[in-house]
Design goal:
- The complex is a heterodimer.
- Chain A is an alpha+beta fold.
- Chain A folds into two domains: 4-232, P-loop containing nucleotide triphosphate hydrolases (Rossmann fold, 3-Layer(aba) Sandwich); 237-345, OB fold (Dihydrolipoamide Acetyltransferase, E2P) (Beta Barrel), CATH 2.40.50.140.
- Chain A has helices at 42-50, 92-102, 107-120, 136-149, 166-183, 194-200, 218-223, 228-233; strands at 4-13, 16-26, 31-35, 57-62, 65-66, 77-80, 154-158, 186-191, 203-208, 211-216, 240-247, 252-255, 260-262, 275-280, 285-287, 293-302, 306-312, 318-324, 331-336, 342-345.
- In chain A, the strands form four sheets. Chain A has a six-stranded mixed β-sheet, sandwiched between helices. In chain A, strands 13-12-11-14-20 form a five-stranded antiparallel β-sheet. A five-stranded antiparallel β-sheet of chain A has the order 15-19-16-17-18, with no helix packed on it.
- In chain A, strand 4 (57-62) and strand 5 (65-66) form a beta hairpin.
- In chain A, helix 2 packs across helix 3 and helix 3 crosses helix 4.
- Chain A is elongated.
- The mean pLDDT of chain A is 88.
- By secondary structure, chain B is mainly α.
- Chain B is 72% helix and 2% strand.
- Chain B is built from 13 helices and two strands; from the N terminus they run H-E-E-H-H-H-H-H-H-H-H-H-H-H-H.
- In chain B, strands 1-2 form a two-stranded antiparallel sheet.
- In chain B, a hairpin with a 6-residue loop joins strand 1 and strand 2.
- The radius of gyration of chain B is 23 Å and the shape is globular.
- Classes of the chains: A alpha+beta, B mainly alpha.
């Protein structure tokens, strides 16, 4: 159990810059999820922490010790791969025991530790099988078991749930979280799935084009996204972004279509007429209201307890709303919930908070 | 999952098989049958008459002390060629697998020797190791090592082993490289994180995972050493000095073509055929069990 510090890590492959200086401090026992679209550098960052890639610049510290020049073997970490990366010629037992054997752990202790981990993951009855005789979910558990038995300082997960079907993924997600809390091992979890990120992480790192766009707890990231990228990436369906301008000394915004929405959580700095991007989550739009904007519904996706409506405003801007129950109307008048509006700089996309 | 295609009728499958069957029949079964038949016959010295002698040829061959020497030579030669050719190829393949820059050039260069005809390859080695005109031959002699493979049987054997193995390295290299590249990178990374150093990774992960390739190459290399090295031996040493580099296949040639003792030569080829068949069967039966697929 240890803390992890990533300091100014940069990475380029030839002329291509993949990471532009990442700083991150993971506390002892914390689970941090790195989330981002494919190609954002999240896997590269994880592999640098593992020692499988060498950082072009910057340092990685585990438990305060600089491990940057160390081989993966000397970092005392365990990693779960997307492809599981089990040793195909070894039984489940040997797969889990491999790392312990190398470290010269006595046989009796190896057997005990493998048994303990196998029971924890309910794979005790599979110990004599070869990986090819296992289902995807079972392989996933073995890969987890191989990480657990080592009692490493750090768990690294590289999209471990991506190859599982939807139902199993939800189940394993909960199991990983339970296990991580029970063992309280410092963990770094990489995923492209924002739901996974929200549910698993104590904190999230949202990565975008080689930079950490935002670091924070899931609720922080969700309720106060740092920029338009994070705003649309976290949350499903994605946040609506509408062009508009500041009005009334920053106390309200006017949509390009003409509607005026007051900013209930406080005035934003900036002169009247300043171009901004207005963000509103689909679930924060309520049907009907005096100040509502008219939306022509183009597509309704009923999800049972709620319905996602895709449509357009009179000026052609696309808008998505999530309303409770079934909704069948072709035209709706929508009003944003008080204080649920986000304001971003129209140029840089950065969040503008109340002054 | 293999998909089985079932043909209706007999004509089409037979027609499809016919070209292959014809080739096998004409170039393998017919001569093999001839050899079996000839092995029971004895011809007089002038080739004017033949008589049926039953197993007498076999008895003669198997009781001939020279034949036993040749069997021993063949064992030494084949095992050495297979082990040397495979070990060198595996080493080179591991290096090529690591190489990132100039990997293609490296691979192409290593594959070239396979395109060289056995006799040409042998001449090349001859020029290198000839005691009087060969660069290395003269170097060895100047260094005070008595090197003359035309007199020293052990040296002759070493030379034919090296020349024969060199020819086969390319072939083995291609297969080993393909085998190495089919190992998922993540598995090796997982082993590295589990604490295995490169040496240990090789022996506990890589080597077991390429064992199907190794097994296949072992069979191919032994068969190569048994049958396809005639040209190399013929061009380098003609089986000499004495019998020191005469292998079973070379003796078949010497007795049949040079000494015109067809009965004995045919009996030897039949023994050789049975031997290789038995060897291959044993390999598949016993070694394959230890192979991880």
């Amino acid at each position: 159990m240890a803390s992890l510090d990533i300091q100014g890590v940069r990475k380029s492959f030839g002329a291509t810059k993949v990471l532009h200086g990442i700083d991150l401090a993971v506390r002892d026992g914390e689970m941090v999820v790195i989330v981002g679209a494919s190609g954002c550098g999240k896997s590269t960052l994880l592999r640098i922490v593992a020692g499988l890639e060498t950082a072009t610049d910057g340092k990685v510290l585990i438990e305060g010790q600089d491990v940057t020049p160390l081989e993966p073997a000397d970092r005392d970490i365990a990693m779960v791969f997307q492809t599981y990366a089990l040793y195909p010629h070894m039984t489940v037992f040997d797969n889990m025991a491999y790392g312990l054997k190398i470290r010269g752990v006595p046989k009796a202790e190896i057997a005990a530790r493998v048994k303990e981990a196998a029971e924890m993951l309910s794979i005790a009855q599979l110990l004599d099988r070869k990986p090819r005789q296992l289902s995807g979910g079972q392989r996933q558990r073995v890969a987890m078991g191989r990480a657990i038995v080592r009692h490493p300082k750090l768990f690294l997960f590289d999209e471990p749930l991506s190859n599982l079907d939807a139902k199993l993924r939800v189940q394993m997600r909960a199991e990983i979280r339970r296990l991580q809390k029970r063992l309280s091992v410092t963990s770094l979890f990489v995923t492209h799935d924002q739901v996974e990120a929200m549910t698993l992480g104590d904190r999230l790192v949202v990565m975008h084009e080689g930079r950490a766009a935002q670091v924070g707890t899931p609720m922080e990231v969700w309720s106060r996204p740092a920029d338009t990228y994070v705003a649309t990436f976290i949350g499903s369906p994605a946040m609506n972004l509408l062009p508009g301008t500041l009005e009334q000394g920053g106390a309200a915004v006017r949509l390009a279509g003409g509607a005026l929405w007051p900013l209930a959580d406080g005035a934003r700095p900036g002169a009247d007429g300043t171009k901004v991007t207005i963000g509103i989550r689909p679930e924060h739009l309520t049907v009907d209201g005096a100040e509502g904007v008219a939306m022509v519904v183009e597509l309704a996706e009923p999800l049972g307890s709620e319905t996602v409506l895709h449509g357009r405003l009179p000026d052609g801007t696309a808008l998505t709303a999530r309303v409770p129950g079934a909704a069948a109307a072709e035209r709706l008048s929508l009003t944003p919930d008080a204080g649920a509006l986000h304001v971003f700089d129209a140029g840089t996309g950065k969040r503008i908070d109340p002054a | 999952m293999q998909k089985k295609v079932i043909f209706r009728g007999v004509a089409l499958p037979v027609a499809l098989l016919l070209p292959q069957l014809l080739i096998t029949g004409i170039f393998f079964f017919w001569p093999a049958g001839q050899a079996v038949w000839s092995s029971f016959l004895r011809e007089d010295a002038f080739g004017l008459s033949r008589e049926f002698v039953g197993f007498e040829n076999f008895v003669d061959v198997l009781t001939d002390p020279n034949y036993l020497t040749v069997v021993w030579n063949t064992a030494v030669f084949s095992v050495s060629v297979a082990v040397l050719a495979m070990a060198v190829a595996l080493f080179l393949a591991v290096q090529a697998d690591k190489a990132i820059r100039a990997a293609t050039a490296f691979k192409t260069l290593l594959i070239w020797p396979y395109a060289v005809a056995p006799a040409v390859a042998a001449v090349l080695w001859l020029f290198l190791f000839h005691p009087q005109i060969g660069i290395f031959g003269r170097m060895l002699n100047n260094a005070g090592i008595m090197w003359d493979y035309k007199i020293n049987g052990g040296q002759a054997m070493t030379l034919v082993i090296i020349a024969a193995a060199w020819k086969q390295v390319s072939y083995n290299f291609i297969f080993f490289l393909a085998g190495l590249q089919s190992i998922p990178k993540n598995v090796l990374e997982a082993a590295a994180i589990d604490g295995a150093r490169p040496f240990r990774r090789f022996w506990t992960i890589i080597f077991p995972l390429i064992s199907p390739t190794t097994f296949f190459l072992l069979v191919v290399n032994l068969v190569y050493a048994f049958f396809d090295t005639f040209g190399t031996i013929h061009a380098l040493t003609q089986g000499g000095p004495g019998l020191s580099t005469t292998t079973l296949i070379y003796k078949v040639y010497v007795d049949g073509v040079q000494n015109l003792n067809f009965g004995s030569s045919a009996a030897q080829s039949v023994i050789l055929m049975v031997l290789v068949m038995a060897m291959t069967a044993i390999q598949f039966r016993f070694i394959e069990r230890k192979v991880h697929y």
